[in-house]
Amino acid sequence: MTRKERFERALRCEEVDRLPFWVKVFGDSYLAFQDDKYRAMGELELADYLDLDHMAGGGVAVACTNDRVQRHVEQANGRRVIRETTPDGTLTTIERSDPASRAWHPVEFPIKTRADLRAARHLFEGNRFEAAPDALARGAQRLRQVGDRGIVLAHMGISPLMNLIQHLLGPDATYFFLSDFPDEMDDLIALMHEERLRYLRAMLPACAYDYICSVENTSTTLLSPAVFERYCWRHLDDYGRLVREHGKHHVLHMCGHLKALLPRIGELPALAIEAYTRPPVGNTTLADRARLCPRTSIIGGTSAILWLEPVDAICETIRRDLAEAGTTRGVVLTSAGVMPPGCPIEKIRQVRERLR
């Protein structure tokens, strides 16, 4: 099989010639700490060097316009201030750069008061989307670049509740607001959901890729099964149905504690869970997936911490987990999270060879 055929057959829970394997080693948070020769490699060259069944990213050129919001960004000394001025007030987000992860993280969320909920409506109600005329051609070029190495995945953003928890209110304030201002929060969540549907309706006809990922970061450390049922499941169901109507496949990026949610996730029109993570980082095993969510494939199965162990320990853990699951169908084995910088490229190569 080609690497693409192997990956796609695994996603369909079909037999493969060997276990598909991929690791997250392409970002600066990992490569910045590796030898120069690996940093000098391009994405596809590194994928070939490790012989990965590759999952490549692919953007879709979609422009967003919003006549209701003026956005101003100031950035200096690892601090970024984003001010979004609306007809009902200005929302301010403050982020700091984390040198270790090479990422920006919020230290002040934009929605702080009840009045901010009115301003936040304009961020979503006013958004309009239009795909670039050459979006399909750009996607086709990316598919040619990746070729038979693997699949190409496009991101569609995030569903409303997880957006509130991670980016707009924060975990604690989201639940305080849901309790204190339920009607206003329900109205905002409905607007956010319609905004994602508008985005998908603009993006999907212009997308050359078969796989569309919503970046949820879902975890029962952030929400309960009851909250997932009330606020998340129906949104993800809508997205999955719309993606399927366009002949494509919905993939759920969910990298946290999922065990209590697996039966309901398995009822969504989603092809796979990406970043499915074993303990101690997540709380799901390969056996949990086989028992609780067997029709949904997974892209994951290990955890970042495992890759700090010696090669023998890594391989024995993977062997034991697969034996406990009783099947390799529906599994694309990956590092789940970003590979920790303390795991060198050559160790990954050794594990890769063992897994053959």
Shape: globular
Strand content: 15-25%
Helix content: 40-55%
Strand order of the largest sheet: 1-14-13-12-11-10-9-2
Task: Describe the protein's architecture and organization.
- The chain has 356 residues and is of the alpha/beta class.
- The protein has 2 domains: 3-64 and 127-355, TIM Barrel (Alpha-Beta Barrel); 67-113.
- Helix content is 41%, strand content 23%.
- The strands form 3 sheets. The chain has an 8-stranded parallel beta sheet with strand order 1-14-13-12-11-10-9-2. It has a 4-stranded antiparallel beta sheet with strand order 4-5-6-7, with helices on one face. Strands 3-8 form a two-stranded antiparallel ribbon.
- Helix 8 crosses helix 9 and helix 13 crosses helix 14.
- The longest helix has 22 residues, at 182-203.
- The mean pLDDT is 97.
Topology summary:
Blueprint: H1 3-11, E1 21-24, H2 28-31, H3 36-39, H4 43-49, E2 54-57, E3 62-65, E4 70-76, E5 79-86, E6 89-98, E7 103-108, H5 114-125, E8 128-131, H6 135-146, E9 150-155, H7 160-168, H8 171-180, H9 182-203, E10 211-215, H10 225-245, E11 249-253, H11 262-265, E12 272-276, H12 286-292, E13 297-301, H13 311-325, E14 331-338, H14 345-355
Parallel strand pairs: 1-14, 2-9, 9-10, 10-11, 11-12, 12-13, 13-14
Antiparallel strand pairs: 3-8, 4-5, 5-6, 6-7
Sum this structure up briefly.
The chain is α/β, with parallel strands linked by helices.
Notable traits:
356 residues; alpha/beta; TIM Barrel; 14 helices; 14 strands; 41% helix
